Amino acid sequence: MTIFFTYTVLGLVLGAVYGIAASGLVLTYNTSGVFNFAHGAEAMLGAFVYWQLRFGWHWPAPVALVVTLGLVAPLMGALLYLLVIRGLRNTAEVTKIVVTVAIMLGMVALSQWLWNPNQPHTVDQFFGYASSFKVFGVSITTHEVITLVIAVLIAVGMRLLFHRTRVGVAMRAVVDDPDLLQLNGHNPQRLSLISWVLGAGLAVLAGVLVSPISGGTLDANVLTLLVIDAFAAAMFGRLRSIPRTFVGSIVLGLAATYVLAYFPSTWSWTSNFRISLPMIVLFAVLIILPQDRLQAAATRTRERYRVPSVRKALAGGVALVVVVFLLRLLMVDADIIVLALGMCFALMALSLTLLTGYAGQMNLAVCSFAAIATLVAYHAGVSGTGVGARITEWGVLLAVAVTAVIGAIVALPALRMRGLYLALGTMAFGVFVSDMVLADISPHVLPLLHIKFSLFTQGTLIIPAMRIGPLDLSDHTTFLMSVTVVFALLGIGLVALRNSSYGRRIAALKDSPVAAAMLGQNLVRLKLSVFMLSAAIAGLGGIFMAASVGAVTADNFSIFLSLALVMLTVSAGIGYVTGALLGGIMAGVGFSIVISSFNNLAHGGGGLSGLWSTLAHVSALLPALVGVTIGQSPSGFLHELFLGYRRMAQHARGLLIGAGVADAVLYVLALTKVVDNWWFGFLTYAGIVLLPAIAQGLRPALMTDPPPAPKPDWEAVGVDQPYTDQVRAALDTALALPATPRRTVPVAADPGPAAAPAVAHAVTT
Amino acid sequence: MKSPVLRTEDVTVRFGGLTAVDTVSIDVAEGAVTGLIGPNGAGKTTLFNVLTGLQRPTAGRVHLGEHDITRLPAARRAHRGLGRTFQRLELFLSLSVRDNLRVAGDIRNANQRGRIDVARESERLLELTGLSGIADKDVADIPTGQARVVEVARALMAQPRVLLLDEPASGQTEHETQRFGALLRQLVADGLSICLVEHDMGLVMQVCEQIHVLDYGKVIASGTPAQVQQDPAVIAAYIGTAA
Questions:
Q1: Which residue in the set B74, B104, B141 is minimally distant from A517, CB to CB?
Q2: Contact B143 A756 (CB under 8 A)
Q3: What band does A402 get if pLDDT is binned at 50, 70 and 90?
Q4: A692, A644 in Cβ contact below 8 A?
Q5: Whether residues B70 and B164 fall in one domain
Q6: A672 and B CB contact within 8 Å
Q7: Which residue from B55, B78, B170 is facing A520, i.e. has the nearest CB?
Q8: Residue B86 located in a structural domain
Q9: By percentage, how much of chain A surpasses pLDDT 70?
Q10: Which ipTM value was assigned to this complex?
Q11: How far apart (Å, rounded) are the C-alpha atoms in residues A546 and A344?
Q12: Interior CA angle at A589 toward A587 and A591, to 5°?
């Protein structure tokens, strides 16, 4: 019985922390409409700040607490809201998700810069571990009592806030209709700001309280993933109800400690199971919850993509293969390996072009699907032994098929819900794969079969090279060109798919699920088919990636890598195959090259090593900074670049051809070793990025759109401004008034189908 | 009177303490336009959502022909011949006008038995609804009045038996509304049954054979346009009574 009481108390305390964290998550989601993936990261940063003040600088605990909770946390919440979140109105859910993911990655990078992850940072409980009470023969520390009391106070306080105070009621209204709220005399922006400040406070509080009760050592990754535990708890209240969220938290906390208490410790996976429990509970809740009600909400978002024709995609594919081959001629083996690895990640990112770019669905665990495919290929797809071992084409097919099926099983419960749930469900799956599957390193005896087996043997898998039919990919160049050709073929295939009837249907699914359903589309079936196809592509890319790396560890499939991949692909342009190419290369090798070059410079010693090391840390923050700016250009920076080139092709063709010739000359010079490869790469890259801007500088008139027709200042019309025929015509069309012969402007005289759009355009822009 | 093809039986919808639709029994006649009118907030769109499966009623039943469709999801109702447009436009904004129509045919072919020739049918409907001139435009770039016609044409691609139109004339010019009225009469003549929610009384009185008037969630009058126009309850609801 003592065991039961002991673990019940532990479970209640853990549940209390989950509850504090989860209530903050629910609060911000409901008042700003943005689900904060960085919630756990806020808790993590707060815990580290507290550690710094209390144990690093030995401040007294009350002072450290007041500064952490009263100053740092609110400041963090306010800055996030004002600098980033506020700019996310009228963006797609994908954009909102990716931006908070970027914040989360940025915070992790920042914490690793400020607090070296290789040194332990330990925190003590309030009043120490020795300070405790005895209740029913069970000892409870003062820290645990404090945690429980705070949780109860917060639960009651939130209830009162939302139901008894004017601010609280208004906060509940913000997410439903900010405009209406504004008309009623509230300031929705201020309310959202308050909710982000409070949310950050609750996150930091949870972070400060949880570390001492779960081992006492701060771990940035573990604390950051607290967001998933909090989310699992919040699911009990469908991300809305605070009381049910607290109930869910207690259930989760108790379940976690009972597993520890009563599962046989001889089972090798008991501790892995405990860590994964919130993810498993999450899936169970997702399966039980009733299907989301379809809601009419096709608001116009700011994302725009142009779909290329298959012919253009073909040309692009051929160009890519040629360019990669030409680059290869410049390269030594080490460079070829890096470029090939980048192409593998681009292949994985292609799964996102289909899933997110075309169909508007999310997958935050691409690398975990890559891991599944790799495991299947490793265990069941290899023929031969030793250096002669190869992954066969049948192994690849099997692995890809299994990955698609696993994708279906993972996604099915979440597909019945809004897009956010799929994002969270896949992220939970990613953590589950890391904690359960990739952590399954020590052999255990399989029941019935009596063979010793482990999924991720010894924590490192030696992946043999691939052999596809007669083609042996063990040679670096062959591998690079093969993965490039596969990328090009799949890219062309995706563009063809998008231009097919299936492609139109998934576009319809993305634009307006409710209209698609009303036309008779079975939404779950369509989403499922896209998700399976996408998981299969991720798996294929994963096998190539694993074969390229050679010896893979759990780090090659980490959830943080998946998140960076999604984020960078979205910031490059999720609607484009080129976006996958660029995003994949950036996530897979781009930033790590920059960071490791700076680190090498720093380790080289010399007077500048401090500077280089700082630059390395700054570069580690770069991807997150790129991600945070997505709110400004949600279609991705490639979209802007393409627009520039399209204009150049129309108005400044000479410059375009000239630049092409110049680069060809530069290439020949690099090939003949007259100029350094580095210079060739740098100038080419800079040229591609800057050319549209240069063209604009040279020919400003041609390269910019004609200025939009001046918009009448409606309030001033007829008072300070003349009441012209143009104004009258625009007013009539805007108000949909009858077309009377009074109007003399030719364009408005006949509001036929051809003329009307032009006028309406002038009014709305 | 013509036989009903779609009817509700004591449908009630409550949102918490608010009864948005209160024991409403109406029917939509086969091969005719049935109007559903009432002041703002009368429950018209909520009733539409019940008919199309976007809102589950608190009580009551919905019948399409002989079948009870109360518990069918939206897509399955579409398979049985129910189509609708939306008051707040729900066009597929990343597609062109033509592709908005074609995708409706694609969806029909992928989810139901019996294929239609998508290319030919979409051209026919573009022609019929007068959209041929703007077929290649991005649907995001056309004015509201025409966007409403695109929604109707898209719904027609699924070959519905009953079409529910939610304020199709708002945002249209008078000229467009006139053409729209003519289109509705032609569709009805070809055998389609239409239920029309509309604030433009000119259009309603012109095309409807039968009108149901809703106020505060209840049916306060049903009848021909002439009957409804003279009904004291309807006049009171729209203009208000002398207190």
A1: B74
A2: yes
A3: very high
A4: yes
A5: yes
A6: no
A7: B78
A8: no
A9: 89
A10: 0.94
A11: 9
A12: 70
